[in-house]
Amino acid sequence: MVAAALLLAMPPGLLSAAAKAEGEKEAKDAGDEFVARRQLKRAQELLELGETQRAVKMFETVVEQFPRSPVKNQALLALGKHFLKVQQQLKAIQYLRRLKALKKPDEPIAADLRDLWLESLYLTGVAQFQLKNYGAAFPILRKITKEYPNTVWANQSYYYIGLCHFAQGNWKKAIDALNLVGTFVDPTGPSIQYVESGRRFYIKISDADLPVLHRLGSPVFVEAETARGDRETLDCIPLSLPQGIFISSMPTEIGPANRGNGKLEVIGQDTIRVKYLDDNTRQGQKDVARTVTVKVVSTATARFTTGTFESAADAAFLGQPLFLLLRDTDRDATPQADGITVRLASRYRVKEDEAGEGATGAGGDLSTEQEQETWKVRDEVTVRLVELGAAPVHSGRFGGRVRIEPVRPGEKTDTADTRLSCALGDEVVLTYVDELHIGGASKRLLQARINVIGEIDANPRATQNIVPDPVLRARKLLVETTAYLELARIFNSMGLSDGAKAKADEGLQRVDDVIRVEAPIPMQLKEEAFRLKWELYMAQKDFANAVATCKLFHRLYPDSPFVDEAMLNIGKVRMEAKQYGEAIRVFREILRLPKSQAKAEARFQIASALEARAAEQATGDEPDPKRLEAAIREYKACAEKYPDSEFAGPALAKLVDYYVKTKDYARANDLLEQVFQDYPDAKFLDNMLLKWTLVAYYRKDYRKSYQKCTQLIFEYPDSKHTHDAKKILPRIQEKLKGQGND
Question: Do 125 and 137 meet the contact criterion of CB atoms below 8 Å apart?
């Protein structure tokens, strides 16, 4: 009521001005959204064309210029996927981590953002796996499987959880995780009705009778039959025996039917009918046939190739033939060589005011000039492609060729001939409509592009280009700075601190030129300059200036993860020098950063520093438990405030150790229950099992002690703790016999 009264009391002129301002803001936001989406689309096209540098620059432009637009999130995901693909995992993680903000604590994520957020989590876990940071990968992937089990990302996460355990030699855990891959398929998804030709065909059976039949030695199998006459028997193996879930698979191959060879031969428009005999139904019926039929489809692909139709062509040349290859098994309908037609066009960029009839789509988005560019078609031809292979032909691969003719001055192109007229710098576009694919019977536009780069000329040439460009100058200075940083580190390793300081000073002069440059340069160059600057200060052991540089950088670039990494490194250097007070101060600076992604590690490091200081002050072999209380409080805070981090499990393990030392076995037992429930992938579980064996023994729960001891021996046969477990086991067995247990 108060707000309404104030609004009614506003002068009419002020009210209209406020409404006008709000309208202008909405119009600006709508305009920004349009531009952002256009730039995103253009960046995606550039990435598909292999122009990765331009694509990355445009994605980064979207992120920097439109921070409030949801399009920014798609650009961040695209950058993460690109850098993961080119094996630059650290850069991929930097972009993917920024998408964590999509999920607010204790709030459900919006439906339209959920898949994007889950994919970013999954890719972050994959990147950590590729970096062999298994401890960091586990909590990310487990978060997906626990909180979003009925998603495709959970299936994929189980796969990488299994690979992480496999890499660590945890065979049982690897098998358990890999068994869960593919256990969820969205029944509402259109692809459940189809199978891709040439790919492996999977079948899953769910029957409550199967566990019993399997234990009795009865084989479980299904029969698969194609409409074109192939028939195969597929043996099934248990996927999840307690739930009665069995699985089987068989490769499919394009070609005429050949029964009993362990492969399903299929051709275009084929179907596969799977039959399973239900031995005993709820109604008491026997051998009831359960059938399901899926359609064989092919998701078309197209590319330009060399004359063998095998290797991809990098470019088209004037005066030379251009070869085309299209794969679509759906169009393989007869034993003869079938044929299809595709449309081929050559096009070139023109200014918008020059564009007339035939212009197609927008051009670049990097500058005002590029935003006015558009494409204009120069020539078009229809090309007949013929199915490749020997009779009877069942390959689903269609090939053809067209001659690229140079445009002659003053000559009009003939769109009715069979040759494609092109000029230097043109783009050739192949267009094909795929009417049936794994997504269903809906039209899907397929395009392939290639650039015309000139004529084939073997004459040698030498060229030299010198461009006075601020970006190139910045890159040059950063390369030189990196060299001086390495020299400073070499001098430090030799104990020559004066030489290290001199080389670091040389680097600081160059990196300051990059930081202070007034000309616009990409943000990543500025970030690299700041990173090198604080590392140069660390090489000089000038930690005060290193921390000050980090703080300044964080104020300028609050979303960058570089500050976290730098501050952590400074704190760890202090820890190695046993300067625990200084290390704790640095780690607490990280906790004060508003957008830091490293707070969990900083909290854990604070606890580690406090524990190390208590050990240093100890008079005997073990520190006084009272001196450890401050460290224990920090470990507890780490586990409670950051339960999804990779440091929560180790923090709880430290608490278990403390409660065992103080003989608080009840609290130790409760914590061990929590550790094994919440962190099933932690690398210290063998140690925790030994502690649990002892905790249960001291509590006189000998049955549990025996159970945990044998679990340790069985699941971790190569662990150093297994030797101790084998020595303890006879004593536990004696106690069990004393209680009258076997």
Answer: yes
